């Protein structure tokens, strides 16, 4: 029966019967707001709903013996269980009024069934999208005669085109009653007997046997965070303590991807993953970073991990720190390349017939130099907890990692290195870094070096050398020097690059006057008099 909910129109029911005679309706699925599929034990009927006409139009009919069915709204795929044993699954894909038959596949049962009766239960199958791909998840309960230590979840990859293949096996290492959810691309398996859940990430490295990757759970078994049921009613009642909810109850029903319903208590929850506690559960920093980089809300947790591994008492070795930096910058580089490719395609001006390219999405896994500088490195150097050699080594390790994946290092990172070196009077190291171009040339860096001249005189020459190599920063340097009342230094710089014949005398004389140094003003004045005499034969301005 159908009923239209359209404002200002009569609500008259209309009915659609199955075309197949003597068929039992197993259920129905809305594949869009105006398309519905009837699933019977004899097949499927795909209809278009015409609300204005109060009728349905048959779009396609598929005859097939059906034991049970499953629908994944996210991917618009219906999965039908067929054959006597029920382990041959036939998927159908629905889109814009069309129904496409995908390749059928067979679920491998744990042991050869003794009788010809339904052996694959709907309870042991789930469909979910993981990392953008559709998978059929099969909870395989091993028989007691099996050598296996417990049940396992088998993942079959179901592509739009091509055959369905078994790609992953998740080892549960236990037996009993299980339920599955998929949250943030993680497969979460709940175990009723122990009242714990385990988490699997199929992106992490597993043991490959030539066709299938076998995974152990990423984190040790943990219980879902307890939920307190608030007491409803009058004020005298609500003042009582909330009642703890019974977790892993036999009345729990799970729906994909992340829904848990407690039928006995009348609650519906959405399962979520808390990343902060994972930091203390996964001690291998490289593996932890691999895990976090795949999660949606990961950035602040990643930055927190980076801060922790630079601080006591959890300070990591330089090799561990380097591994983490490399993993972060690998993701950073991938995003920059995708952004660059997108920009090139857009600038190339594709024809209107070509669909516009999708701009790459900047996920939270993209931790750029600004993030690292603001939240980790600048804070780390300010605390001054670590030995200065370790501090400098960490900064240089991050710069090395950026260079390794050919990401241009921002000047503020070099400035942080220089300031740290200066704070600890490591001028010899600063000199070496500049001499061997460990710190790349830039205008801001040259300006910073100029400002160090009073405490490290060779910095002036190092700055000049850098600016000469840049050959595009002469005006900026003069302005910086004049603003710091270093008028003679500015004049020496201009003479050094051969630009003293064309500069404005007024600018230098004004700066000398503001310095309130009569001898300085006289020196500058005499310099320009001599210049005028040489150029024009007269000292007058």
UniProtKB/TrEMBL annotation:
GO CC aspect terms: late endosome membrane; lysosomal membrane; Mon1-Ccz1 complex
Pfam families xrefs: RMC1_C, RMC1_N
Gene Ontology BP, a term: regulation of autophagy
Location of the Regulator of MON1-CCZ1 complex N-terminal domain: 1-56
InterPro entries found in the cross-reference section: RMC1 (IPR040371), RMC1_C (IPR009755), RMC1_N (IPR049040)
Domain Mic1 span(s) in chain numbering: 295-541
Stated name of the protein: RMC1 protein
């Amino acid at each position: 029966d159908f009923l239209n909910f359209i404002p200002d129109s009569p609500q008259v029911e209309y009915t659609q019967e199955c075309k197949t005679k003597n068929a039992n309706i197993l259920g129905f699925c809305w594949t869009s707001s105006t398309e519905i599929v009837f699933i019977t034990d004899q097949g499927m009927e795909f209809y278009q709903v015409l609300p204005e006409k109060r009728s349905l139009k048959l779009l396609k009919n598929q005859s097939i013996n059906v034991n049970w069915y499953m629908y994944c709204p996210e991917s618009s795929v219906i999965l039908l269980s067929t054959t006597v044993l029920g382990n041959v699954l036939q998927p159908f894909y629905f889109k814009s009024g069309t129904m496409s038959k995908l390749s059928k596949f067979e679920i491998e049962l744990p042991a050869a069934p003794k009788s010809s009766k339904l052996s694959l239960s709907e309870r042991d199958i789930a469909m979910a999208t993981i990392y953008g791909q559709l998978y059929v998840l099969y909870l395989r309960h091993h028989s007691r005669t099996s050598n296996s230590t417990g049940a396992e979840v088998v993942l079959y990859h179901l592509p739009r085109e091509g055959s369905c293949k078994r790609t992953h096996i998740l080892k549960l290492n236990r037996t009993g009653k299980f339920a599955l959810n998929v949250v943030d691309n993680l497969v979460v398996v709940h175990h009723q007997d122990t009242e714990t859940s385990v988490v699997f990430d199929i992106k992490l490295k597993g043991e490959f046997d030539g066709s299938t990757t076998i995974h152990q759970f990423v984190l040790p078994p943990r219980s879902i965070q307890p939920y307190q049921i608030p007491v409803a009613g009058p004020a005298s009642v609500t003042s009582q303590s909330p009642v703890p909810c019974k977790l892993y109850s036999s009345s729990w029903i799970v729906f994909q991807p992340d829904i848990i319903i407690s039928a006995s208590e009348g609650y519906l929850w959405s399962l979520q993953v808390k990343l902060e506690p994972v930091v203390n559960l996964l001690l291998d920093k490289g593996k932890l970073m691999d895990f976090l980089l795949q999660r949606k809300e990961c950035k602040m947790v990643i930055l927190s991990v980076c801060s922790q591994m630079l601080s006591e008492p959890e300070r990591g070795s330089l090799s561990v720190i380097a591994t983490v930096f490399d993993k972060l910058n690998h993701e950073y580089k991938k995003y920059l390349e995708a952004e660059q490719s997108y920009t090139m395609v857009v600038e190339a001006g594709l024809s209107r017939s070509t669909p516009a390219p999708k701009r790459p999405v900047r996920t939270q896994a993209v931790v750029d130099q600004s993030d690292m500088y603001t939240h980790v490195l600048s804070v780390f150097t300010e605390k001054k907890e670590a030995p200065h050699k370790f501090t400098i080594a960490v900064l240089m390790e991050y710069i090395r990692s950026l260079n390794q994946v050919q990401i241009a290092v921002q000047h503020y990172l070099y400035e942080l290195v220089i300031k740290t070196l200066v704070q600890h009077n490591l001028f010899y190291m600063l000199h070496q870094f500049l001499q061997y171009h460990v710190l790349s040339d830039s205008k801001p860096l040259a300006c910073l070096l100029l400002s160090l001249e009073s405490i490290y005189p060779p910095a002036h020459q190092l700055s000049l050398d850098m600016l000469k190599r840049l050959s595009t920063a002469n005006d900026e340097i003069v302005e910086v020097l004049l603003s710091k009342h270093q008028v003679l230094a500015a004049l020496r710089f201009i003479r050094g690059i051969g630009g003293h014949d064309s500069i404005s005398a007024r600018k230098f004389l004004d700066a000398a006057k503001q310095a309130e140094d009569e001898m300085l003003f006289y020196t500058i004045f005499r310099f320009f008099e001599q210049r005028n005499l040489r150029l024009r034969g007269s000292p007058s301005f």
